[in-house]
Amino acid sequence: MTTISTIGIIAAALTTGAYIPQAYKTIKTRSTKDLSIVTFTMLFIGTILWFIYGLYINDTPLMLANGITATLSGIIFSLKIKSFGRRRRR
């Protein structure tokens, strides 16, 4: 493994891991009140595009990191959409 690959893996682990506390808290509390829908829309779409790019260039760390991050941000995004719908009905 090259030094640059190691840097990529560490970066992927850190940026992906950064979503875990927010996803855990959001799932546990079911509260998305203070989360920006615009931010999570952009993050969700961005990580999906990074995942597709990783597929195209056959970069496993890029695919893994962004696949996991897309999943986590997708969960938060879907909970935000659900809570947005509930607030509109009130």
List keywords for this structure.
mainly alpha, 90 residues, membrane, PQ-loop_rpt, MtN3 and saliva related transmembrane protein, 4 helices, Monooxygenase, single chain
Which secondary structure elements does this structure contain, and how are they paired or packed?
Layout: H1 3-17, H2 19-29, H3 37-57, H4 60-89
Helix pairs in contact: 1-4, 2-4, 3-4
Query: Unreliable segments (pLDDT under 50, ≥5 consecutive)?
Result: none
Structural class: mainly alpha
CATH second-level architecture: Up-down Bundle
Query: What overall geometry do the principal axes of the alpha carbons give?
Result: elongated
What does the radius of gyration come to? 15 Å
Into which percentage range does the β-strand content fall? under 5%
Treating each run of at least 4 consecutive H or I residues as one helix, how many helices?
4
Distance between the termini: 55 Å
General description of the model:
The chain has one domain: Monooxygenase, CATH 1.20.1280.290. It is 86% helix and 0% strand. It has helices at 3-17, 19-29, 37-57, 60-89. Helix 1 runs parallel beside helix 4 and helix 3 runs antiparallel to helix 4.
Give a short overview.
The chain crosses the membrane at residues 6-24, 36-56, 62-81. This protein is an all-alpha fold.
